[in-house]
Amino acid sequence: MPRLSSVFLTLAAALFALPFVTIVLAAFGTGWSTGLLPEGLDTAAVAGVLTDPRFQAALGRSLAVSGAALLLSAVLMVPAILAGHIYWPALDRWLARLVVLPYAVPGVVLVVGYLRVFSHPALALNGTPWILVLAYVPLCFPMFYVSIKGALTGLPIADWLDAGRLMGLRDERILARVVLPMIAPQILLGVVLGLGILLGEFVYANMLVGGRFETLQIYMYAKRTESGAVTAAIILFYFLTILSLTAASVALSRQRPAR
Amino acid sequence: MTFLTVDRVCAEYGATRVLNDVTAHVAEGEMHVLLGPSGCGKTTLLRAISGLQAISGGSIALAGRRIDALPPADRGLAMVFQHYALFPNMTVRQNLAFALGRRGLGRARIADNVDRMLEVVDLTPRADALPAALSGGQKQRVALARALVLEPRLLLLDEPLSALDAQIRKRLQLELKRMQRQLGLTAILVTHDQDEAMRMGDRISILNAGRIVQSDRAETVFHRPADTFVARFLGEANILPAHLIAPGRAGHAVIHPAAFEIVTDLPLLEAEVVDTEIMGQLVRIHCRAGGEALRVDRLAGYGAERPAPGDRLQLGARPDAVHFIAPTSSPSVPDNTSPDP
Ligand SMILES: Nc1ncnc2c1ncn2[C@@H]1O[C@H](COP(=O)(O)OP(=O)(O)O)[C@@H](O)[C@H]1O
Ligand SMILES: [Mg+2]
């Protein structure tokens, strides 16, 4: 029996690995038109993409937009989650339901709404990167909520606050000096998960800013008609980025606060 | 002289009254044990004294000064929490220094006080360890040091040893008691463990369903319980209908199992042996008398003869070993261990 299951496991692993292997071969291979395997290997396509100024600019824009959105989201969510968890359980129950809304409503519907709201003169952000940042902020909420809430549940925060009150320390000081350091890995986990989502996001980027502010996804989309090797190189880069983010998030979620 | 006076204090959680006219007196330098079943309001009383829990009536005075309107940090007391509440991201030394953060002391003074306190609890070698690296007993001592470094006039200990296993607990009981005597501390120790209460307490107050039912020296509480709740809660005393011992008398008679003597004439009771059980240096004889189950303890020598089931025993006891509880002194609160709904 163990034999049989290991055979199945190997088969499944091979099946999952196939697309990755294919992409690697497509990115580095040359003359792959007749045989089962490419005729030669060549790093030109990969190097070409990585040194393409347009690619570098797109990567920079993606990182800037994601970074800004994650920062804003963290600044809004971390205090809200703490306040709900510690002082306001009723808010906490609502928070749990509200944070998933951006995923419950189809992106297209939200985009139409955003476009109308942000065409108003006072909020005229249409076509600027800022509208994309604002659209991305709520997408990060669930990542922060789930990871931070999980960390808070095991911590004796009420006792820490009580101990602090007897020492004459205000709650803010205990939150800043004890609670925040204890949940720092989970905040970072929220950032990593959010980055993974935002770097791959296409619907909002395409409809809200499109070619006027070319992000990584838009660049990838624009390049889809060029040679297969170039597309494969972009996908490979993207794949490796997500893989390393996933590895980072696994490492972070293993990191339990010490008691 | 009374050092801490808790006078008719009431407290509620929402509509549920948890402390009901609690009155207690603690003398300076004494270890005052607050004993009661879980859920009876012990933690709430400590939190009310410390100011972490609002009171809805009554007053609290420490060293002749009303403290019940003061913020917790200005009351001159410190608390050791049941689960220690150490700051896990700080070393032992930092935990103590952090506690002194708002005292306006200079760095050098803080470092001095912290070092001195670490020596008192014998933790100098572990000063730079994080709490996670400490054993349960060591964490307990850090929590104690963190409370003592505040130089409180009153130390509140909320079941400080209950998370430790029996061996370490016994050792720390002795250590805590020795430290309290040495430093002349006034302390209130909360426990639900009657052995711990007897071992540690200069005086014991027994709390049941939000009321203090008796407050006295350990010996008095043990031998002269105020009501059947106290008698039942402390040890394994026989609580018999009084008329079995003194015909015509109402209420209950309390006799500890080891207070019985086997006599040949003028017995208090005649009992029939049901079973015997060896408990280390004692033999417990389970009997029945007048329809009541009865526990009798005798010293067990090696190979000593034990009565057989069905044997009849003539039982006597010294007059001062029998304590009568009048029916009127039964508490107005029920004897249950769960709180009132
Ligand atoms: N925060 C709270 N909210 C509502 N009820 C509480 C709260 N804390 C304690 N209680 C209730 O008050 C009663 C006394 O609690 P507590 O003082 O913790 O008892 P003890 O320390 O003697 O075990 C219990 O019935 C408990 O369920
Ligand atoms: Mg308690």
What does this structure look like?
The complex is a heterodimer of chains A (259) and B (341). Chain A is mostly helical and 259 residues long. Chain A folds into 2 domains: 42 residues, no CATH class; 201 residues, MetI-like (MetI-like fold, Orthogonal Bundle), CATH 1.10.3720.10. Chain A is built from 12 helices and 2 strands; from the N terminus they run H-E-E-H-H-H-H-H-H-H-H-H-H-H. A two-stranded antiparallel ribbon of chain A has the order 1-2. In chain A, helix 2 packs across helix 12, helix 3 runs antiparallel to helix 4 and helix 3 runs antiparallel to helix 11. Chain A is globular. Chain A starts with a helix and ends in a 5-residue tail after the last helix. Chain B is elongated and about 75 Å long. Chain B is an alpha+beta fold and 341 residues long. Chain B contains 8 helices and 18 strands. Chain B has 2 domains: 227 residues, Rossmann fold (3-Layer(aba) Sandwich); 88 residues, Nucleic acid-binding proteins (OB fold (Dihydrolipoamide Acetyltransferase, E2P)). In chain B, the strands form 4 sheets. A 6-stranded mixed beta sheet of chain B has the order 6-7-8-3-9-10, sandwiched between helices. The interface between A and B is medium-sized, with 18 and 29 residues. Magnesium ion binds next to helix 1 of chain B.
Sum up the structure in keywords:
heterodimer, A: 259 residues, mainly alpha, MetI-like fold, 2 domains, two-stranded antiparallel ribbon, 2 strands, 77% helix, B: 341 residues, alpha+beta, Rossmann fold, OB fold (Dihydrolipoamide Acetyltransferase, E2P), six-stranded mixed β-sheet, five-stranded antiparallel β-sheet, 18 strands, 32% strand, disordered C terminus, binds adenosine-5'-diphosphate, binds magnesium ion
Which distinct ligands sit in these coordinates?
Answer: adenosine-5'-diphosphate, magnesium ion
Q: Number of DSSP helices of chain B?
A: 8
* Major protein interface: A-B, 18 and 29 residues
The secondary-structure element order of chain B is: EEEHEEEHHHEHEHEEHHEEEEEEEE
Q: Which strands sit side by side, in order, in the main sheet of chain B?
A: 6-7-8-3-9-10
Predict the CATH topology of the largest domain in chain B: Rossmann fold
Helical fraction of chain A equals: over 70%
The fraction of residues assigned to DSSP E strands of chain A is under 5%
Major β-sheet profile of chain B: 6 strands, mixed
CATH architecture of the largest domain in chain A: Orthogonal Bundle
What general form of chain A does the structure show?
globular
Instruction: State which percent range the strand residues of chain B make up.
Output: 25-35%
**According to CATH, what is the topology of the largest domain in chain A?**
MetI-like fold
Instruction: Supply Rg of chain B.
Output: 24 Å
Structural Rg of chain A: 23 Å
Number of strands of chain A: 2
Low-pLDDT runs of chain A: none
